[in-house]
């Protein structure tokens, strides 16, 4: 999740955390350093190590049990979605003891054309379709519920008026016909977690520091970063150097180093939008695939690199 940069984004994050406060022991104590920015006499936005530690701790707790639960295939799945001007997000949740518990979260951003040309209901509908496609392994086999804060979607994705439909909406509606679901409307102020996700783009408990540290431990990625991007000699086996050189040779236009983290950038030929993905070290592959169900990768020779969305 992107760190709050002002009072408005901090309030959004605190609202997200507050939604699950009954599952987080000592939340009031944890958020105290962050609350200092909401005081009337606070002139500048304060973000030092104390605020950073509080933020990281809360994000970690939001992604662990008892908040995040493993899927129970004997219970109904609920897909909750929301969209903002520049992104979308949502969660798969299930009811346990009368309370909603998320199984997994998702979020993403719209490209420049989508941000500029799509209206609100198109963005909201896209969030629903994206969520269904991402979690079809949960949703295909039994009826599920879609919850959105856009009441227009109730008819738009089922029985739209002739003047409201379009080729794109028709394609989405036809795709959804292979699933059995009901759409429910819930006011936006009750979709706190999804609304926060649609505006934050990256909700997860794995920090940039974690990824950077693990990339530097990975001999192949460390060699790509230091030997070929930073042009610094590294003490490493000849075999690793050859593999890294081969990968870099065919992907040097795609690799970028940002804040010390290796990313892979590819341009969508249809939309001309640049898609940037973090290159995931082997040590984090199982953890990230478990949380995000990511299976994006590319192979060069005998080496395969996993990419986060």
Description:
The protein is α+β, with helices and mostly antiparallel strands and 309 residues long. It has three domains: 56 residues, no CATH class; 123 residues, Ribonuclease H-like superfamily/Ribonuclease H (Nucleotidyltransferase, domain 5, 2-Layer Sandwich); 100 residues, no CATH class. It has 14 helices and ten strands. The strands form two sheets. It has a five-stranded mixed beta sheet with strand order 3-2-1-4-5. The protein has a five-stranded antiparallel beta sheet with strand order 6-7-8-10-9. Helix 1 packs across helix 10, helix 6 packs parallel to helix 9 and helix 12 crosses helix 13. The longest helix is centred in the middle third of the chain and has 15 residues. It is globular. The chain starts with 6 loop residues before the first helix and ends with a strand. The relative contact order is 0.11. About 9% of the residues have low confidence.
Question: Would you summarize the structure shown here?
Answer:
By secondary structure, the protein is α+β, with helices and mostly antiparallel strands.
Which SSEs are present, and which pair or pack?
Layout: H1 7-19, H2 27-30, H3 32-35, H4 49-62, E1 78-83, E2 87-96, E3 99-109, H5 112-117, H6 120-134, H7 136-139, E4 144-148, H8 153-156, H9 167-176, E5 181-185, H10 192-200, H11 208-217, H12 219-229, H13 238-251, E6 255-258, E7 261-267, E8 274-280, H14 285-292, E9 297-300, E10 303-307
Parallel strand pairs: 1-4, 4-5
Antiparallel strand pairs: 1-2, 2-3, 6-7, 7-8, 8-10, 9-10
